[in-house]
Amino acid sequence: MVPVIPSNVPRVKPNAFVRWLGRTVLRLGGWRIRGPIPDLSKAVVIAAPHTSNWDGLWGLAAKMALGVEARILGKDKLFWWPLGSVLRGLGVVPLDRSSPQGTVGQAVAMIQGSERIWFALAPEGTRKPVKEWKTGFLRIARTAQVPVIPAYFHYTERVIGFGPPFHTSGDDVADMAAIRAWYRPWRGRNRGTT
After folding, report:
1. What is the pLDDT of residues 136-189, one digit of tens each?
2. In angstroms, what CA-CA distances link 185 with 38, 48, 95, 145, 180?
3. What is the pTM of this model?
4. How far apart are CA 81 and CA 64, in angstroms?
5. How far apart are the C-alpha atoms of 55 and 152, rounded to whole Å?
6. Which helix (H) or strand (E) holds 59?
């Protein structure tokens, strides 16, 4: 159910119970993880299609099952006690919306200040149907000089998978078209393709 994790991938401190729990949640839901997982120490990981709150549950279960360290920005308003401690433990970092750096700047600073980091986000920016994805993930990857790892939810087969690393070219329109074309086969829970 879980592919081999390459040596350069950021890992959390080993915890057999957490890995068992993640695998159990996936197994009970009928999900499996498909690799190979790119052997990268730094990357922007995009997860799509993001069409349901269930994506968060399955994504978190996959992260736990794999033992991968992935950081996610969350609204700073969510970091009240005791939820803040739980979110930090899950790899969520508070986003300061008043920062002059903006979301892209904060993500880039986090990546550049880390020896190993996978920064994960949903390119749609919402669970609602959208025609266009937000380009922030391309700007983050380009500025931080790291590749994009496409990850997908494919509900028809209950698979969470990873694609090959994508290196930005500087042409956001062409890059977005290439990434969207790669995602075309994958189906979300609440609508067709991304």
Report:
1. 999 999 999 999 999 999 999 999 999 999 999 999 999 999 999 999 999 888
2. 20, 11, 32, 28, 10
3. 0.89
4. 23
5. 10
6. helix 54-66
